[in-house]
Amino acid sequence: NANKELGLALDDSEIDYLINAYAAGGPLARNPTDVELFMFAQINSEHCRHKQFNAHWTIDGKEKSQTLFEMIRTTHKNDHQWTKTIIHALLESPIGLAVKSSIA
């Protein structure tokens, strides 16, 4: 219920983890505070953990042996002229240019 009410965007496995942790007989055995719930949601967010980039992929019915991050790292290792770090991409964008020029 708190997941929807507070907009935490937790998936079922994260909710199960919290229920078990805070349940009677669990390691915490008390109600969580709103701060704890928000911190857990933030730490486990897509932004912080890159859940999708670390997920296993099935493309055209064939499961890939690497996560998306591993695919990117392999491409970069094999031929890095075709990959860029996100910081380079950001610095070359209009927003990045504005930030770069304001810092200089």
How would the blueprint of this fold be written?
Elements: H1 2-6, H2 12-22, H3 34-43, H4 46-49, E1 56-59, E2 62-67, H5 68-78, H6 86-92, H7 94-103
Antiparallel strand pairs: 1-2
Largest sheet: spatial strand order: 1-2
Query: How would you characterize the largest beta sheet?
Result: 2 strands, antiparallel
What is the C-alpha radius of gyration, as a whole number of Å?
Answer: 20 Å
Regions with pLDDT < 50 over 5+ consecutive residues?
Answer: 95-104
How many beta-strand runs? Answer: 2
The string of secondary-structure elements, in order, is HHHHEEHHH
How many helical stretches? 7
Q: What would you note in describing this structure?
A:
The protein is mostly helical and 104 residues long. The chain is 56% helix and 10% strand. It has a two-stranded antiparallel ribbon with strand order 1-2. Strand 1 and strand 2 form a beta hairpin. The termini are far apart. Residues 95-104 have low confidence and may be disordered.
